[in-house]
Amino acid sequence: MENQSAVTGRVIGCAITVHxxxxxxxxxxxxxxxxxxxxxxxxxxxERQVSVPVxxxxxxxGHYQIDFIVERQVVVEVKSVEHFHKIFEAQMLAYLRxxxxxxxxxxxxNTHLLTEGxxxxxx
Length: 123
Description:
- The structure is a single chain.
- The protein is an alpha+beta fold.
- The protein has one domain (4-122).
- It is 38% helix and 33% strand.
- It has helices spanning 4-22, 28-41, 86-99, and strands spanning 46-56, 59-70, 74-79, 103-108, 118-122.
- It has a 5-stranded mixed β-sheet, sandwiched between helices.
- It is globular.
- It starts with a helix and ends with a strand.
């Protein structure tokens, strides 16, 4: 199993490739689909649209739908928005809590350079 730094490097590399090919301003679903293809081509293990249950006092009260869990280590959320909002940070931290994972990447493809749209979260 790769260390988390290597995994995030591979995810960001795949995302940069997608961004270079497609550019900004497309729908999130388009980038998500392209990123899944790139993960496959680069042999990056991933699960897509992962449903994670949420409990309250031992009762199931809902679920989160996570774009990707990569290498069973990193939560990856795809966005295509003008600006990051605080709600995205809260969303990512909730995903990390619910999965028990400690590292997340928020990728905003609606930027001139993808590296401007990457936020790393540690929980």
